[in-house]
Amino acid sequence: MYKKLVLAGVATFFFTGASFAQEMKMCDDKTFEMVKMEVEAAPEDKKEMAKMELMMAKEKMDAKMTKECSTHLEKASKASMKQ
After folding, report:
1. Which of 19, 21, 78, 83 is the most buried (most CB within 10 A)?
2. How many C-beta atoms lie closer than 10 Å to residue 25's C-beta?
3. Cβ-based neighbour number of residue 34 at 10 Å
4. Sign of CA dihedral 60, 68, 74, 79
5. So where are the chain's domains?
6. What is the pLDDT of residues 18-62, one digit of tens each?
7. Left if phi > 0, otherwise alpha if psi is -120 to 50, otherwise beta: which for 65?
């Protein structure tokens, strides 16, 4: 009985991890422009934080740091949509 409980817990841990994994935004010019349009269309109270994240994404893109760039693009997009 204990083995089944442990096995169920381990299986749950491994299988639910994939469902929570987020798909990151690509770090390319097309995605950058798409997020930039989202930021520009955002309400004024959301723009400051979103613009800061967008600026950091551009810096990371120029430095060829794609993972960090993707993270900042994601944050910029979310910041422009927060309610």
Report:
1. 78
2. 20
3. 15
4. negative
5. 22-81
6. 444 457 889 999 999 999 999 999 999 889 999 999 999 999 999
7. beta
DSSP for 18-62 reads HHHPPPPPP-SHHHHHHHHHHHHHS-HHHHHHHHHHHHHHHHHHH
pTM of the model: 0.69
Token code pair at residue 72: 């900042």
Residue with tokens 């309610």: 83
CA torsion sign for 27, 50, 35, 62 is negative
**At which residue do the structure tokens 């349009």 appear?**
37
Token output for 76 = 């910029």
| Residue 50, number of CB atoms within 10 A of its CB | 23
